[in-house]
């Protein structure tokens, strides 16, 4: 069976630096393969509204260096409903769209899989390929997602600046980073900035244990002789305790330990990086993987592969039953989209081997720092 000839691209969910690189590459490669290329504005919401417009080379030529996404993005909770997806398929059919490239994270790719479900399409072919784009790096069967590298660089730059003032005044800073239910950004940025402690949901620690761990870390650093006594702690937003309450409990416990100390010298400072982590011009690496993953995804749609996700150097080669190396790029794989979403659920709930390895590897790093 032949593949798609009229292909639409959409970006959905949280934006990630490098999405525009993927949009550009998908458009250029698709046109080079003789396909008509279209952009869907505002993700699945735009699809429901029929906001589908042609994409030319001129439309995408200058977007490589821009953050965000020129197509816009939106969340669409109603897409969980069958009748809503039927309306979306009707819009695609009205525009003659037979192929779709979805650039986004877990929720976006879940919508893509539902959209091409044979039980819902009635046998009408819909060729779909996903491109992983999420600063959280919470998708399975891909080593990295688009946006992770830029987000990491943003966190490292911010923490380096915080470390300067923390060192000057021997302060303790708790820096909260994004990541939703995945602690990847917190873990890796903590290593990159030389943080004294990282807090991430995969640890599964109680609130009391987290507070005690921070206090013990602060006291251990303060006990050092002839060394800087600043403390940098990276907290993932997925750690359930709100950062204001965490600060209050840590400060109270430190005052108990040092009742005679000047409060300004022992209380913690808090910085929430928030959405600044999502923004900014994409790094060279995110431009690279955005372009390469999109190239592989478009070629898969044209070749009639469905439904798949283009993956960047998976942590381990996927089994032959769910993945194969992409002929168009030696560093990319085509992985069965359903298998990606199933393993992503395992990753986010801590059941996957990768989740256990991440947490265990970081515990070893912490042990080395304390020794």
Give a brief rundown of this model.
With about 375 residues, the protein is α/β, with parallel strands linked by helices.
Structural account:
It is elongated and about 75 Å long. It has helices at 19-32, 43-48, 57-60, 82-94, 106-115, 118-121, 148-169, 184-193, 207-222, 243-257, 263-266, 284-303, 337-348, 353-370; strands at residues 6-11, 36-40, 52-54, 99-104, 127-132, 172-177, 197-199, 231-236, 268-272, 308-312, 323-325, 332-336. The strands form two sheets. An eight-stranded mixed β-sheet has the order 3-2-1-4-5-10-12-11, sandwiched between helices. It has a four-stranded parallel β-sheet with strand order 7-8-6-9, sandwiched between helices. It starts with 5 loop residues before the first strand and ends with a helix. The longest helix is centred in the middle third of the chain and has 22 residues, at 148-169. The chain has two domains: 6-147 and 282-349, Rossmann fold; 149-277, Phosphofructokinase domain (Rossmann fold), CATH 3.40.50.460. With 371 residues, the protein is of the alpha/beta class. It contains 14 helices and twelve strands. Helix 1 runs parallel beside helix 12 (284-303), helix 7 crosses helix 8 (184-193) and helix 9 (207-222) crosses helix 10.
